Amino acid sequence: ITAYPPRYANWLEYIKDIGHLKDIEALPAFYAAERYMGSTGVTLLIIALMSLVITSLFGNLVALSRLIFAVARDEVLPKELAEVNKRGIPQRAIAFIVVISVFIPFLGRTAIGWLVDVTTLGATIIYAMVSMSAYVKAKEEGLNRSKIIGILGVVFMAVFMVMLLLPKLFTSDSMAKESYCLFTVWALLGIFLFRLVLVVDRKRRRFGRSGIVWIVLMALVLFTSIEWLTEFSSARTERAMNNIIAFYGLEEGAVYHGPISTEFIESQMNRLQLNNTATTAIVAAFFAIALGIIINNHGLMNKRADEHERELGAVKHAAYTDSMTGVKSKHAFTEKEASIDARIKAGVEGNFSIVVCDINGLKQVNDTLGHKAGDDLILKASKIICENYKRSPVYRVGGDEFVAILTGQDYDMRSELLASLNRIVEENMTSGGVVIAAGMADFMSGDRSFKEVFDKADTLMYVRKRALKKM
Question: Are 42 and 34 in contact (CB under 8 A)?
Answer without folding.
Answer: yes
